[in-house]
Specification:
Strands 1, 2, 3, 4, 5, 6, 7 and 8 form an 8-stranded parallel sheet that branches. Strands 9, 10, 13, 14, 15, 16, 17 and 18 form an 8-stranded antiparallel sheet that branches. The protein is α/β, with parallel strands linked by helices. Helix content is 24%, strand content 24%. The model has no long low-confidence stretch (mean pLDDT 94).
């Protein structure tokens, strides 16, 4: 959706924090005038702690830090958010190791926040594991209390947890995919966005291209690499200047659909690196440079990121995050 542009929008909505993956993203936001509090949620090398402190970034910590790494010169010191692994077995300190971690953590290091992340808060049928993780997190909070560590900000839930585990909202929630009007899954959309009384999320992103060539081919003509598909009748095809390099997943070969003049048009054959082909046989008055909607609305129909994700067995997060950053974005 655009790192800097969305950050400008979100930072203008009130006293919001921004979450980024790495310190380079955070530095880019500061260079573009973003003044909001920024939490770097991924790994930050100790050699960049001073830089982070100078820009007033908050850093995620889950490994031991040598006191010598805490200060470079006499400048500011970074503020940390302690990541607790409550059962996802990813980034974070195990609850069983938290007490020993705190005993050796530099005393002058500011632990401003503590957080965890749920492994399956998107499970709408079984709350068992999220409940276990929440219990583990509360156990960790108790350990912090006994060691006289009092974080100002406690957070646990992302978009899925916000909707399914209301008791885990604490001081802050890390809303992600919902900020862009997208759903974690089609099942989530059905539950939380019914026709009456739903959240009313609307996708803010449309992804479009143009037809660059139209041709007529005979029945039985193969299309694309590997000759994986042959047209079953005389057909009119449109060449589109988009491929898997641009982020349109190769798994959508022969199953994806795009919108042209309000009509759904099937992708034919394999998607190439920068090109793909659509069947426009049923589209009236089709011509070169007609708009093609890959994600979004046209006429009375809509192709959603959730739909594409469902077709290739993944999640809407991956569909939109793989759109190549080099493609031009137009903000209206």
């Amino acid at each position: 959706h655009g790192l800097v542009e969305t950050a400008r929008l979100f930072s203008g909505l009130g006293d919001n924090w921004l979450g980024v993956d790495n310190i380079d993203e955070a530095v880019l936001l500061r260079k573009n005038g973003i003044k909001s509090a920024i939490l770097v949620m991924g790994y930050t090398p100790a050699g960049r702690f001073y830089e982070a402190a100078r820009h007033d970034f908050r850093l995620t910590v889950y490994n031991q830090i040598k006191p010598a790494k805490m200060v470079i010169g006499r400048g500011p010191k970074p503020k940390f958010h302690l990541k607790i692994d409550t059962g996802m077995s990813r980034q974070g300190i195990l609850v069983s190791e938290l007490a020993s971690f705190l005993k050796t953590f530099p005393r002058d290091a500011a632990i401003e926040g503590v957080f965890t992340h749920f492994a399956n808060a998107d499970d709408l049928h079984d709350r068992g594991y999220p409940n276990l993780q929440l219990a583990n997190f509360k156990k960790a909070l108790g350990i912090l209390e006994r060691h006289a560590v009092h974080p100002e900000i406690i957070h646990a839930s992302a978009t899925t947890g916000l909707l399914t585990i209301p008791e885990a909202r604490f001081d802050m929630v890390r809303v992600g995919i919902a900020l862009y009007g997208l759903w974690p899954s089609l099942e989530f959309a059905e539950k939380f966005n019914p026709p009456v009384g739903g959240l009313g999320l609307l996708p803010v992103l449309s992804w479009k291209t143009r037809i660059v060539q139209i041709k007529k081919i005979k029945k039985g003509t193969p299309v694309g690499y590997g000759i994986t598909e042959k047209v079953k009748k005389d057909s009119v095809i449109a060449v589109l200047p988009v491929g898997y390099y641009d982020g349109y997943d190769r798994g959508l070969s022969s199953v994806g659909e795009v919108l042209i003049n309000g009509q759904r048009c099937k992708i034919l054959g394999r998607i190439s690196m920068n090109l793909m082909v659509a069947d426009v046989s049923r589209v009236e008055h089709v011509k070169i440079w007609d708009e093609v909607v890959l994600i979004g609305s046209q006429g009375k129909d809509r192709v959603t990121a959730e739909e594409l994700a469902d077709k290739i067995g993944t999640i809407s997060y991956e569909v939109v995050s793989r759109i190549n950053p080099s493609l031009p974005r137009i903000y209206t």
